[in-house]
Amino acid sequence: MLSSRHGALLQFVLYLFVGGISFLVDLAVFIALLPHGYVLALIPGFLAGTITNYILSRLVAFRGGRRRFVTEFAMLATVAATGAGMTILLVLGMVHLGLSPLVAKIVATPLILAWNFLLRRHFVFSPQLPRKVQNFIGDEEGSVPRGDGASV
Q1: Which residue in 73, 80, 79, 89 sits closest to 23, CA to CA?
Q2: Any idea what DSSP says for residue 130?
Q3: Which of 1, 49, 91, 123 falls 20 to 30 Å from 108 in CA-CA distance?
Q4: How far apart are CA 14 and CA 121, in angstroms?
Q5: Cα–Cα distance between 32 and 54 in angstroms, integer?
Q6: pLDDT tens digit sequence for 57-98
Q7: H or E element: which one contains 5?
Q8: Residue 91: which residues within 8 A CB-CB, separation 6 or more?
């Protein structure tokens, strides 16, 4: 079994990978739609990134299945919508301060990272690693210790 420190760190690194790919999808859609206005470009980009994040999170970073698919996806959509709202407010604020919409989007993204990871880990998905990942790293239990010595 992974130590508390290594288990949580591994899961965060896997989420960074998932988040990085999701961000690139989000950014590509945002850039493609930017000529139509940055506020309108934010929403489809975020939706594309959220769908990518859900799929990759289930495959790589978190074990799903604690709830029915519809419930799990609705919970993820709630977390994502809140993150999108926070992102829009940050981007609007930074644009108002003189940053370009693209720079503002890039600056806002890591500010939402901790929010997304923690809520996905503790609210949306099971905090365990997916079975294929745990088999790959040789962790038969697949639990990721919480940091206080207990596993989740």
Answers
A1: 80
A2: P
A3: 123
A4: 12
A5: 22
A6: 889 888 877 788 889 888 988 998 898 889 889 999 999 999
A7: helix 4-33
A8: 38, 42, 101, 104, 105, 108
